[in-house]
Amino acid sequence: MNEVQNEGGIDRRGFLASAFLISFAPACIDLSAEQAPQALPAPLTFDEQAVAWAKDLRSILSHDPSPTNPETWNSLWETVSAGYSNDVVNLNPGSHGSPSLIVASSLRENAERHWHDSQGFYSAAEREFIDQIIPTAARLLGLGENHSTVYLTKNTTAGTEAVLTGFPFNADDEVIIASTEHPTASAYVKMREENSGVIRKPLDLPVGENVTAADIVKRYTDLVTPKTRFVLLSHISYVESHTLPVQQICQAIKAINPDIHIHVDGAHALGMMPIDIPSLGCDSYAASGHKWLGGPESSGVLWVSNHAKEMNFHPLIKDGNDPYTAATGAPNLVTALAFGEALKLHAALTPQRVWSRITELRAQVIEALKDNSKLKLISSGDPQLQSGMITYELVSTYDHQITPNDATVLAQKCAKVGLRIKNVTDFGNAYIRIGTPVSVSSKSLASGLELLRTLL
Ligand SMILES: Cc1ncc(COP(=O)(O)O)c(C=O)c1O
Fold it and tell me: 68-92 burial by CB neighbour count: b if 16+ within 10 A, else e?
């Protein structure tokens, strides 16, 4: 037997991080006075750092920190950001979020254990932990204990793919989708155009500081006709970074025709803001684990309503949500376990607290860049439509006509100095997008923004 497994099927090292909120051993640092001055304690291993960080977090969370108590509140977020790599300032969690020490430790431990025992699917403890992933995700999606139609996926795209490819379209059915929807969502609408004869009805989302919820709702409802069968929209839009008024859009569309299926691409919402699917009123919702949640690459969830499950013929949706079904084949257990850790961490911090922090950091960005003549705000200033991301357009000057390539070059220059921002140029715009995840401290955000200003 290898050293990372024991008789009882409990793998202590593999579950080091998962023990975070239940129980874990104190960090093994001996600070006793007897130590000879030259016998400095060995630096903490990566996994010991994860345990120590989890301990610090537990201690702060036990004081129930809130924005009304600045001392505990600031100490919570300083501690949180200390659990992420500071090799880069990642202001692009909308592409890839930074994993916390707990997630990275889980990945490392379980990958190593897999090396020792490649058949390791499932020990009793793993199975127990895996069985908690979907219920935890369901609670974070506002579904309470109702998790029979929540599925583990590899990303948002996979969830959207399952819903769109399994939807029983007829020729000439209309699909409403924003023209700036993420290319991975559009790809499956395009496929159904080609193989089923559905008709895509594109809409342009309004841009700029003064955009209101009513403007956006109207863009969607204006396109509804008796032939509309499906609407695909993002909870937080990829290009404009608006939080769409999903609840109002769903209500308005369902008031016209309750049978229209509304699918929400929640790629950016999970890990950024509280999500309450029942109150949104949609029929399916796909989200990513590897963006704002800071989960491992290739992790995500899909929820579909019971009615949508009945109608849909995609095997993933039909076969139930065991991590291993005929539709899924063998899951990536290492990823699933680390995804579970990311969900648990988010649940412990609470989506409400995370969102409050993200909006504080967002305000810091807006303030720092507000008078910058080289940037124009594309995201709405309406608090209801704000998200953890802000999109800016690069503005031409009298001697330089800006092109999308300028945004790409700027993002590359930033990357070279350890600052991650997103260039959003897919639709011919010279846009950059800045996200404010809890993995960055206020101080590193300030230095990142200073760097950005000098590179603009
Ligand atoms: C709005 C939106 N939807 C979907 C995706 C694709 O996400 P994933 O890679 O998790 O499938 C992205 C990626 O950036 C996105 O911004």
Answer: eeeeebebbbebbbebbeeebbbbb
* H/E element, 218: helix 213-221
> Following CA atoms 125, 130, 135, 136 in sequence, which dihedral angle do they give, to the nearest 10 degrees?
90
HSE at residue 40, side-chain half, CA atoms within 13 A, is 3
415 falls within a domain? yes
> Could you tell me if 377 and 410 lie in one domain?
yes
Q: Is residue 317 part of a domain?
A: yes
For residue 92 and ligand 1, the question of a CB distance below 6 A is answered with no
Q: Are residues 263 and 364 in the same domain?
A: no
Instruction: Judge if 445 and 368 occupy the same domain.
Output: yes
Read off the pLDDT of residues 186-242 as tens digits, 9 standing for 90 and up.
999 999 999 999 999 999 999 999 999 999 999 999 999 999 999 999 999 999 999
Boundaries of domain holding 389: 351-455
Domain count, the chain: 2
CA 266 to centroid of ligand 1, rounded, Å: 8
Question: Which one of 92, 161, 291, 339 would you pick to mutate in the ligand 1 pocket, going by the greatest count of ligand atoms within 8 A of its CB?
Answer: 291
Q: Is this prediction's pTM over 0.85?
A: yes
Helices (H) then strands (E): counts for the chain: 15, 13
User: What atom in ligand 1 is closest to the CA of residue 290?
Assistant: 10
Which atom of ligand 1 is least distant from the CA of 300? 10
End-of-domain residue from the set 329, 360, 384: 329
